[in-house]
Amino acid sequence: MQLFVDKKCYVQHIEGHGSEYFELIKEQGLEGIVLKKADSIYRPGTRSENWLKVINYQYENVLITGLRKKEFGVLLSFEDGSPAGLMEFMKPSDRKKLYAEYKKFIRTETDDFIYLDPKLKGIVKYRNLTKKGYLRIPSFEKWTT
Q: How many CB atoms lie within 10 A of CB 67?
């Protein structure tokens, strides 16, 4: 018989000054902080109301350069035309506007994507850049056209 031991994991914390600490994290360009109840225990693989992520989101102006056909996804480019990645998060009202507008800008199609002239513009929020320079977990914020 194998014995499993519930190991408690204590994570050191800073008492108070959360707002100031988060401002420092933002200045350094780091991903964010975790707010926790001081006496709470970290339990790997579970979510807890005692541990809350506060993400230092970044914002970027982007061009919409394509649509994925089978499952919702939007190809993004930076303003200089270089690829910014694939966005899968967009509010229904913004999707509605996208679907009403994109047909005017179709450049070409493949089995998987519809490629567009980069005329539709918006702002996305994201966590940071990937190793390849793409936006990590981009989500649409607002239109700029």
A: 19
Continuous segment of H or E residues that includes residue 71: none
Average pLDDT over the chain reads 91
Q: Measured on CA atoms in the order 114, 118, 123, 124, is the torsion positive or negative? A: positive
Statement to judge: residues 37 and 79 lie in one domain: no
Q: Which amino acid is at 91?
A: K
- Count of domains for the chain: 2
Can you give the C-alpha Rg of the chain in angstroms?
Answer: 20
> Which of 39, 56, 73 is at the close of a domain?
56
Whether 16 and 66 map to the same domain: the answer is no
* In a shared domain, residues 88 and 31: no
pTM of the model: 0.80
User: What's the average model confidence in pLDDT over 79-84?
Assistant: 98
Q: Which amino acid appears at position 59 of this protein?
A: Y
DSSP 99: H
C-alpha to C-alpha distances, 51 to 31, 41, 70, 127, nearest whole angstrom: 16, 9, 36, 19
